[in-house]
Specification:
This protein is mainly α and 88 residues long. The chain is built from 4 helices and 2 strands, in the order αββααα. The protein has a domain of 40 residues.
């Protein structure tokens, strides 16, 4: 007889151990293991920037992709972008 325990919403099922998750994140180079301790390889800002870059590259004309994005920025965001150095 197969007995399954119902888990609450959002609880991780026992069939997907943390090791499997960490292994998959490691393959994607999102975490690294140092002396059996895992740590992220990138911060949230770096991950979002990579996603933005990937989305930008999906368009044939990058200026066409950027135009609606830039129009959606509020004044504070525009000021923040202008304050960034061109290259670090």
């Amino acid at each position: 007889m197969d007995i399954r325990i119902r888990r609450g919403a959002g609880e991780l099922e026992g069939a997907v151990p943390a090791h499997t998750i960490l292994t998959r994140l490691g393959r994607k180079r999102l975490v690294a293991s140092v002396q059996a301790r895992y740590h992220p390889t990138k911060d949230a800002a770096e991950l979002v920037a990579e996603q933005m870059r990937a989305a930008l590259e999906l368009g044939a004309d990058q200026a066409e992709v950027l135009r609606p994005f830039v129009r959606s920025l509020d004044d504070a965001d525009v000021a923040a972008v202008r304050a960034l150095p061109a290259r670090e």
